[in-house]
Amino acid sequence: MGDTNESNASGTALLKKLNMFSDHDFAPGERRRHERKRLKAACTIHEIDQFSIVGPGCKCESIDVSRSGVAVSSRKMFHKGTHVVLLLPLNGGQNKAMVGKVQYSRYSKQAMYIVGVRFGAPPSTVEFQRWLIENKVA
Q: What are the pLDDT digits (tens) for 69-118?
């Protein structure tokens, strides 16, 4: 589901919409490829199965976002490698669907997990497109 160039383009587009775009990368030695911007917003995360069927959503809160991914705080633990779609609120009340793959999920505190998602290309299946339409997602 997607390559690095497409995932960076998705993240860059999201940052531009949120007026948080920056071309500056972190200093040498930093493990992250792109600068992170704090983004505290209620969102929903859904697992996508191997047939591109989107499962029920789990409420979460975004922590930060970059060109290549997003970190969220969730009560649910997601396994590394799981494909997900995040519904992030945009100005104006509409949601933006951001598809990606879980890179890590670690216990934080108070029954919460920090989940790191790397953006990727959305499935091109009829099932996924139907879900987007049914949920009125941008």
A: 999 999 999 999 999 999 987 777 778 899 999 999 999 888 899 999 99
Instruction: Please state the φ and ψ torsions of residue 7, each to the nearest 5 degrees.
Output: -65, -40
Amino acid at 113: Y
Determine the straight-line distance between the first and last CA of the chain, rounded to whole angstroms: 19
Angle at CA of residue 2, ends 135 and 118, nearest 5°: 80
- Distance separating alpha carbons of residues 43 and 127, to the nearest angstrom: 22
**Cβ 111 vs Cβ 91: under 8 Å:** no
Q: How many Å apart are CA 1 and CA 75, to the nearest integer?
A: 25
CB atoms within 10 A of CB 1: 15
